[in-house]
Amino acid sequence: MLATMLTRRTAAHENSAVRSLVAGSAGFDRAVRARAGAYKPGNGAGVHNGPFGGASWGAIHQAQASIYQQLHAQAATLAYVDIIR
């Protein structure tokens, strides 16, 4: 029962948080650009010359995955708080 509650509450928090993670929004693009710089250039095929400032596609993908992992961890933490409450 607790596992089901945790899964459902995590999904609910993710759904509400992911609405603000929209490609093209200034905050999201800034976060991706900042994280993409931490990954090796050339970590993917080609370079993206759009809003991410010449980062490689692989670095951009890793940056987006990093942001999602952080979002998932925060959603899980909020789910635990909901269950404890």
Please, could you describe this protein's structure?
This protein is an all-alpha fold and 85 residues long. Helices cover 66% and strands 0% of the residues. The chain has three helices and no strands. The protein has helices at 2-18, 26-36, 57-84. The chain is elongated, with a radius of gyration of 16 Å.
The total count of strands amounts to 0
Mean pLDDT: 82
Beta-strand content: under 5%
Low-pLDDT residue intervals, each spanning 5 or more residues: none
Q: Rg, please? A: 16 Å
The percentage helix is 55-70%
Main beta-sheet annotation: none
Number of helices: 3
Spell the H/E element sequence: HHH
Secondary-structure class: mainly alpha
- Shape verdict: elongated
Q: Quote the distance from N terminus to C terminus.
A: 15 Å
Helices and strands in order:
Layout: H1 2-18, H2 26-36, H3 57-84
Helix pairs in contact: 1-3, 2-3
Summarize the structure.
The chain is mostly helical. Helix content is 66%, strand content 0%.
Keywords, please?
85 residues, 3 helices, 66% helix
